[in-house]
Amino acid sequence: xxxxxxxxxxxxxxxxxxxxxxxxxxxxxxxxxxxxxxxxxxxxxxxxxxxxxxxxxxxxxxxxxxxxxxxxxxxxxxxxxxxxxxxxxxxxxxxxxxxxxxxx
Length: 104
Known about the structure:
The chain is α+β, with helices and mostly antiparallel strands. It has helices at 43-50, 76-90; strands at residues 6-11, 18-23, 26-28, 31-36, 53-58, 61-69, 96-102.
């Protein structure tokens, strides 16, 4: 069974300090997807916008990765897939979708 939460560490764009959050997620195509209910107002989203390098911990897996905000107009199929997975897992998918992919 998949872990309920993912732990995301971003670098504060003003402070340069690490910030960790616990958040719902889904996995799809080798990447992890999060939804920001507060859209761009979420500090973690602002941090990723300024510095996409992230650290991720989910279950027993830890990795360095890159985060990016999905564009629903340019990637409608991916956004629909992520929303469907979030709805199935948490019965919720409203917000801004952020992709976290492990570094190669």
